[in-house]
Specification:
heterodimer, A: two-stranded antiparallel sheet, about 5% strand, B: two-stranded antiparallel sheet
């Protein structure tokens, strides 16, 4: 029941926010309140979740289309609970940021953000193949408008490429869903039905690879992340991309064990290529948004390696890294947004020297950056280490790639830090550009505190994502 | 005394109700001028509503199929379900028509609309080649006039002429095909044709092909679609809505019925033919729509592509396929009528044909119509939260089940292409502003048009409702499918 509430509450809130003719501030405030209440709902779910027994909890199942075996079936596993948690927190920060900057057409904007929140949570909770498809597709509806209306100058091109890539993947997934449903007579994911059809798995894999994105299906990423409003880019990179990981973990491995095993070599190679290539692109990107966009792609490659390591270490690491990267990436995107608001650009060449006279900004960027580059002791380090250890089973080469990825991450993150804070003041940095305001700090600080907490106790997520007894359900 | 066949009046009541309404609407010319439009419109509205309600009753009564009028007509749930859908479409079209700026001939307009509806209700329960042709001509003749009804507009006249010529050709082909089938089997009834053992007769195959082609004209399946964009564009918009929804419902149901009941022995041949028609329609409709600027033309090409999707279900030649087709018709009709209703509203506001440019910024200025059109476009593209998604899912499932996996892939590719124009409409609605394009916008508040707004609300409700309430529709479709001999 609680899972249904987690899905429906933001949707209802979206309708209320969209319909009530309130003034701008009130509308945005209402949306933020709804997002915070959603975090509260998630905390309730967290307290009710029994981590000892694991398995699917807090779920509901209703018949939907009985004759073809489609049901409204939702519920949370340990790992879904953590992914939903990251989602609610990141959305609250993003909606808060949108309120802070005062987005135009406030009612439509916040209604769409809340709809997106509902769709993402539904994706993480879906226990029916068709419901998963519905939620996965439903994310695209608000995203299309959010990027297309409130985006930057080249937003139209961004939406077109984004939609073409995503829909190409989604429609292949639809074909796979149809083929699976017709062959098996049900769409349920809870009955432990497996399929050994490689083609059907491939349809899903392509859809997830586009959403993540994995190399070489990342063509939509640079434009979308650069042109989207910065908080939408944060949401895209922090949580929407993680639906792909959820798809691999919840659908790919348990439902298609044989095909996943057959194709794991290919996926691991592509993920490794994405990790290295994305890191190099991030190092070379001319603007901060580009760096974070490509680093997100690299991180998704890394997490995919963890998933396809096919062992407990890799899976635990993948979930921990998903949560940690979600928080880090949202923090970094919001920080870039704050820098952009001060300097009007995120071009690395014209920025710099912002540390002088702006101690709060400097501290926050430094802490965020340190966690992003996986400094030992941070949550991201723990995640990457688990993935590296897990990948060793599949071949030591993958561990080397992961290690290389960590080194490259240090390079591009240090580049971000120094580009913002150090060197001599850039052309775009005006003397009077302010330090972080209290409102901005209030958005970033909770994210940083959560990250620090997770750094102190990464096992909170990694040990509870999968209960040992049910882990084999998720391994082929 | 002449022996008259026994008549089951209840089974014919959906048709008769509409004929009665048409009569009342026509007689309204005797009334003072200020009452005419109201009386005629209300008569048509009640006629369609009564037709739908009576068809619902017939649906309830006909758990077994029964032949009527010496075996020329049939009373079964397939026909009754189609008649319910047709009646509801009719109600929405009357509501959409209400605020048209036509000054005269309102009585004739609504009478023709109701008569066309009656013809379609008759057509879907035809069980013989004669009644089939009779029904086809009955509603086609009404539509020829309705298409050309705005006789002061050249495009309307042009559309009427085109429709008349191409439609006449289609009817002639159908008639010729019927004659060949009659020649080969010496039978007119569908069941009797199937029973007559003449499956190797070349005339029968030629006749089958010509009947299929004749019906494909009405379904506007490629390559028999040439008339569609011009006629849809030129007709008065409510008439376009009526044609896009009703004609398709009627023609597809009849296509399915005649193929399954009269030609089961030739199924190996016609399933391939229909699958090819579906594939061509999908390709042609979607690619054609990409090049259009006029919204009515876009919707016309989109209707061709939807014909392709629905023919996929016919090609499956199975109970699942029939259910898929009947389910698909429900959200499709709603989205079609709804989209054309929004176009009609915009047309009335701007007093000009609606191109993509004239939609610029409409989503922000006219939020209600904007959101409605957004929903219809997403539905037609098969996005979730609309019945369009389940329609596509069921159609694909039926095709996959029948072994036509290649058709599923074509359908998936067609859907991908279709996003190009459906989302383009959304882009114009929300991502272009009218000020940037210097499009003359009426400004201020939109003209009040409650009737049309009710029709749009109903269409939105059905579009979204059919996503959540799938099983009841599917059950009804499954009952209807049981009437066919699979």
């Amino acid at each position: 029941m609680l899972t249904t509430t987690l899905i429906l509450f933001p949707v209802v809130a979206a309708l209320v926010v969209g319909i009530l003719p309130l003034p701008r501030e009130a509308t945005a405030g209402l949306a933020l309140l709804a997002a915070l209440l959603e975090v509260g709902l998630w905390i309730t779910a967290l307290t009710q979740f029994d981590f000892e027994t694991g398995g699917l909890q807090l779920g509901t199942t209703h018949e939907w289309v009985e004759s073809v075996g489609i049901s409204y079936s939702v519920g949370l596993y340990g790992f879904s609970l953590w992914l939903v948690g990251a989602t609610t927190v990141v959305f609250a920060a993003a909606i808060g940021y949108a309120m802070w900057v005062g987005r135009e057409r406030t009612r439509a904007y916040h209604a769409l953000m809340l709809l997106l929140l509902g769709a993402v949570v539904a994706t993480f909770a879906a226990q029916d193949l068709l419901l998963f498809y519905v939620a996965f597709e439903a994310m695209l509806i608000p995203l299309y408008v959010l990027v297309g209306v409130w985006g930057g100058e080249r937003r139209q091109a961004a939406t077109v490429t984004f939609v073409i890539y995503t829909m190409a993947g989604s429609l292949l997934m639809l074909a796979s869903v149809v083929a699976f449903g017709v062959t098996e007579g049900t769409f349920s994911l809870t009955e432990g039905i497996t399929s050994d059809n490689t083609w059907i798995f491939l349809g899903f894999a392509v859809a997830f690879a586009v959403k993540a994105p994995l190399f070489p299906l990342h063509g939509w990423l640079p434009l979308a992340y650069r042109e989207a409003p910065v908080e939408v880019a944060a949401v895209l990179s922090a949580v929407v991309s993680k639906t792909a990981i959820y798809g691999f973990v919840r659908i790919g491995l348990p439902t298609f064990p044989e095909p996943a095993d057959t194709l794991s070599g290919l996926i691991l190679v592509l993920a490794s290529a994405g990790l290295v290539y994305g890191s190099l692109l991030a190092f070379r990107a001319p603007d901060l948004r580009g760096v974070i966009a490509y680093s997100s792609m690299a991180q998704m490659g890394l997490i995919t390696i963890g998933v396809f390591a096919f062992d407990d270490l890799g899976l635990d690491g993948a979930i921990l890294q998903s949560v940690a990267h979600g928080l880090v990436s949202a923090t970094m995107f919001l920080l870039v947004g704050m820098v952009e608001r001060r300097c009007g650009t995120s071009d690395v060449d014209v920025l710099g020297g912002m540390a002088r006279g702006r101690p709060t900004l400097a501290t926050v960027v430094l802490i965020g950056g340190m966690i992003a580059l996986a400094v030992p002791g941070s949550a991201t380090f723990a995640g990457e280490f688990l993935i590296m250890a897990g990948a060793y089973e599949q071949g030591w080469g993958y561990s080397v790639v992961v290690a290389l990825g960590i080194v490259l991450a240090a390079m591009y993150t240090l580049r971000v830090i120094s580009a913002i804070l150090h060197v001599k003041p850039g052309r775009a940095v005006r003397e009077e550009a302010l330090d972080l305001r209290l409102g901005e700090l209030a958005l970033v600080l909770p994210l940083l505190l959560l990250l620090l907490g997770l750094s102190l106790w990464p096992a909170l997520v990694s040990e509870s994502a999968f209960v040992a007894s049910s882990l084999e359900d998720f391994l082929p | 005394m002449i022996d008259t066949p026994s008549v089951d009046w209840l089974a014919l009541s959906p048709t008769l109700a509409l004929l009665g309404a048409a009569g009342v609407a026509l007689l309204s010319v005797l009334l003072p001028e200020w009452m005419r439009k109201g009386v005629a419109a209300v008569a048509a509205l009640l006629g369609f509503a009564a037709s739908a309600a009576l068809a619902g009753w017939v649906f309830d009564e006909s758990s077994t199929r029964e032949l009527l009028l010496e075996g020329t007509m049939v009373q079964d749930r397939l026909a009754a379900l189609a008649q319910v859908i047709l009646g509801v479409i009719g109600v929405a079209v009357v509501l959409t028509s209400w605020s048209d700026r036509r000054r005269e001939n309102n009585a004739e307009y609504y009478a023709l609309l109701a008569t066309a509806g009656a013809g379609m209700a008759f057509f879907v329960s035809a069980e013989g080649l004669m009644t089939l042709f009779l029904g086809l001509e009955w509603f086609s003749l009404c539509l020829y006039i309705l298409v050309a009804f705005d006789s002061e507009r050249e495009t309307s006249l042009e559309a009427g002429l085109k429709y008349l010529i191409v439609g006449g050709l289609g009817s002639a082909v159908l008639l010729f095909g019927s004659a060949l089938v009659y020649g080969a089997t010496a039978e007119l009834g569908f069941g009797a044709i199937a029973a007559a053992d003449s499956s190797s007769d070349a005339f029968l195959y030629a006749g089958l092909a010509m009947i299929l082609a004749g019906l494909a004209f009405k379904v506007s399946a490629a390559p028999f679609h040439m008339w569609t964009p011009d006629v849809y564009q030129g007709s008065p918009t409510p008439v376009t809505a009526f044609m896009a929804a009703s004609t398709k419902v009627a023609a597809l149901v009849v296509t399915l019925r005649i193929l399954v009941t009269a030609f089961p022995a030739q199924a190996d041949t016609w399933t391939i033919a229909v699958a090819v028609l579906a594939a061509i329609s999908l390709a042609w409709g979607n690619l054609g729509a990409l090049a259009q600027r006029d919204v009515k033309r876009i919707l016309a090409y989109s209707s061709i592509s939807h014909a392709g999707f629905m023919l996929m279900a016919v090609a499956a030649n199975s109970e699942v396929g029939t259910e898929a087709l009947l389910y698909y018709l429900v959200p499709y009709s709603a989205m079609s009528v709804g989209a054309f209703a929004v176009v009609a509203a915009r047309e009335r506001e701007l007093q000009a044909p609606v191109s993509l440019e004239s939609l610029a910024g409409m989503g922000w200025e006219r939020p209600y119509h904007g959101i409605a059109l957004w929903i219809f476009m997403l539905g037609m593209a098969g996005f979730p939260l609309t019945g369009g998604m389940f329609g596509k899912l069921f159609v694909f499932s039926a095709a996959y089940d029948a072994g036509d996996w290649w058709l599923v892939l074509i359908g998936v590719a067609a859907t991908a292409v279709s996003l190009g124009y459906y989302l383009n409409v959304v882009r114009w609605l929300y991502m272009r502003t009218a000020s940037a394009l210097q499009v003359a916008v009426a400004g201020g508040s939109p003209p009040r048009d409650s009737a049309l707004d009710i029709a749009i609300a109903a269409a939105v409700t059905v579009t979204i409702g059919s996503f959540f309430v799938v099983q009841p529709i599917l059950d009804a479709a499954s009952d209807a499918a049981a009437a066919l001999p699979f």
